[in-house]
Amino acid sequence: MRSFWILRLGKSNTLAKTGILLLFLIFTLFDPTQAQSLLPSKTYPTDFIPPLEIRPLLAGSFGEIRTNHFHSGLDYRTNQREGYPIYAVSDGYVSRLRVQIGGFGNALYIAHPNGYTSVYAHLQRFNERITQILKNYQYRIQSYDVDFPLLPIEIPVKKGEIIAWSGNTGSSAGPHLHFELRDTQTEETINPQLFGIDIPDQVKPQINGLYVYKLHGQPFNPNTPKQFIPVIGGDGIYRIAKPEIEINGETGFGIITSDQQIPGGSRNGVYSIELLLDGQIIFSSMLERFAFHHSRAINAHIDFPIYITTRRTIQKSFLEPGNPLGIYKNLVNNGLVNLGDDTPHELEYIVKDVKGNTSSLTFKIKRNAALSSARNLTPGIKTFEHDKVNEFSAENVKLIIPKGILYSDINFTYSVKKRPNAYSDLHTIHNRLTPLHDTFSLFIKPDKSLEEHLRSKALIVNANGGFAAGRYDEKTGFIKANPKSFGSFFVALDTIAPLIRPINISEDKSMAAENRIVFKISDNLSGIRSFTGTIDGQWVLMEYDLKSSVLWHTFDYRTQPGKHLLQLSVTDMQNNTRTYTSSFYK
Predict the structure, then answer these.
(1) Tens digit of pLDDT for each residue in 440-489?
(2) pLDDT band at residue 533, thresholds of 50, 70 and 90?
(3) What is the DSSP letter of 302?
(4) Is residue 52 part of a domain?
(5) Contact criterion met (CB below 8 Å) for 365 and 345
(6) Domain co-membership, 83 together with 222
(7) Who contacts 249 (Cβ-Cβ below 8 Å, separation ≥6)?
(8) Of the candidates 170, 195, 220, which is a domain's last residue?
(9) Can you say how many angstroms the Cα of residue 137 is from the centroid of all Cα atoms in its chain?
(10) 485 CB-near residues (< 8 Å, 6+ apart)
(11) Is the pLDDT of residue 6 over 50?
């Protein structure tokens, strides 16, 4: 704000004007909110090498907006195939090995002496030394899904050593390498390109749309009035097609923007966004680093209702009070604009990628006092405050929302109606367009038609999809679950065991020419909890791909020539179990 009062000084003579100009330049050049406002918080080491030797093309950038989370690393394309060698980016030791049914799939972590940890995920397989240690551990605890630390002396590695091969395991949507660099102590993930990991990029970010939000002193919610403003331009220079935007009262802005590494390439996320009012920064966000426990707050960073209903990604340039993300700087009134006069003012967006390629969107705004500054609020049963514990109960339902789960205060709504073929009414808890930072406790009492012997199979289902879980409490008579989103919930039963479909084995079949036994498994409702395979009564490693639902065991020295008995048991979340048994010859 210092530059504003300097410009309003008197104009009595040339000397005064010269002095004013000099002071203005000094204050502007050295004002930390103006020049170099978005430098990284620290200097990072730059002696890491790339994890792949192929041309670095990205399918996903650091901090890119994904469903319910920021992307935590770089996704390297691998030419739509698996099997590229993965190299240790620096000296260190394997500090953690993880095999996950979903998520990262096969992943390893290397701790480096400089205080950072590199992460490599969705791997096809590890090198022989790592594979042997992993397999020994899986057999020791009799589990495919493992996550365990290692000592520095167990698997030391050198820069450039092959540690694994690229793959498509876990929740990967296609063959690629997911690569991260983390702070070893805090576990915060950091943009790898700040470490000298070079990704060639000369393309300026694209700006595809502008939104105006009429907050008028009320919390942002799904009913906040908003206006889409088309954007025209290109090659880093953008504007709106109309002379100016008229506003009245407290107003927020949002932007649709993306970045490409090469022309026509994947649309990835941008590194930083700044919003300036008459040359003064009032909002900035920068994706240098973030903590994983804050990542779900991406739903407060974007216009969540628009994303859920249209999949359009609008990055809001104003802050909700319960947003815990540490990516923001230079906030003035949390990014909200409330003009105090009727003269035109200039707003400018400055958008950059991590390589410094820059685009800007400039437009005029003006107050029109004739526009309504009032806002009708959606009526609710009670107000839930974002910084307090909130509770609600009605007939056969109650809920507890811990402090810090809401991003803004809400006017809580609830309704109930009959649900055919269910063991309770359908309870609509607020609305699915209001995001939550974590789980809340939901209790629903089933109706009297739920027989006692079926109580252990009862669970709470979200009619909007994506959630089915819970446990019956004999003391209270309620079923408790912990959803991560609002919605419409009812009680159902899961009494059906998972399905097991053998792919290449049958009774007394010779498997001498096969190197593995393959199945497909699935479940109708609650999802698969566990699977266990034995050969001749001894536990064997069964591996699982969540995307294809394929489960398999690869033969090794443990299965010698002769007749054997295989037994496979698969259990769902409500403890329904199906067992497949077959003799085979090897």
Answers:
(1) 999 999 998 999 999 999 999 999 888 999 999 999 999 999 999 999 99
(2) very high
(3) B
(4) no
(5) yes
(6) no
(7) 214, 215, 216, 217, 338, 371, 373
(8) 195
(9) 30
(10) 432, 435, 436, 462, 464, 466, 467
(11) no
Contact yes or no for 427/414 (Cβ under 8 A): yes
Which of 183-208 are b and which e, b meaning 16 or more Cβ less than 10 Å from the residue's Cβ? ebeeebbbbbbbbebebebebbbbbe
Residues 275 and 187 occupy one common structural domain: no
Cα–Cα distance between 6 and 20 in angstroms, integer? 7
Q: Tens digit of pLDDT for each residue in 117-127?
A: 999 999 999 99
- What residues have CB less than 8 Å from 448, skipping those under 6 apart? none
Structure tokens given for 237 = 């220079």
Domain encompassing residue 136: 58-195
Contacts 24+ apart (CB under 8 A), 445-454: 445/396, 445/397, 445/477, 445/478, 445/479, 446/472, 446/477, 446/479, 446/491, 447/396, 447/423, 447/491, 449/423, 450/423, 450/491, 450/493, 454/493, 454/495
CB 370 within 8 A of CB 344: no
| pLDDT tens-place string over residues 303-315 | 999 999 999 999 9
Residues written for the chain: 586
Residue type, 459: L
The three-state (H, E, C) secondary structure of 103-138, written as one string: CCCEEEEEECCCCEEEEEECEEEECHHHHHHHHHHH
- Least Cα distance to 529 among 101, 31, 189, 176 occurs for 101
* Calpha distance 74→199 (Å, rounded): 10
Phi, psi of 294 (to 5 degrees): -100, -10
Alpha-carbon distance 180 to 190, whole Å? 7
Strands annotated E in 122-205? 123-126, 146-149, 156-157, 162-166, 176-183, 189-190
Position of tokens 């690629």? Answer: 176
Extended strands (E) in 402-527? 410-412, 414-417, 426-429, 441-444, 458-462, 468-469, 471-472, 479-481, 487-493, 499-502, 509-510, 516-522
What are the φ/ψ torsions at residue 307 (nearest 5 degrees)? -65, -40
**What are the tens digits of pLDDT across the range 488-525?**
999 999 999 999 999 999 999 999 999 999 999 999 99
The answer to whether residue 333 is domain-embedded is yes
With helix as H, strand as E and coil as C, how does 306-349 read? HHHHHCCCCEECCCCCCCCCCCEECCCHHHCECCCCCCCEEEEE
- 166 and 62 share a domain? yes
Structure tokens at 362: 């400039």
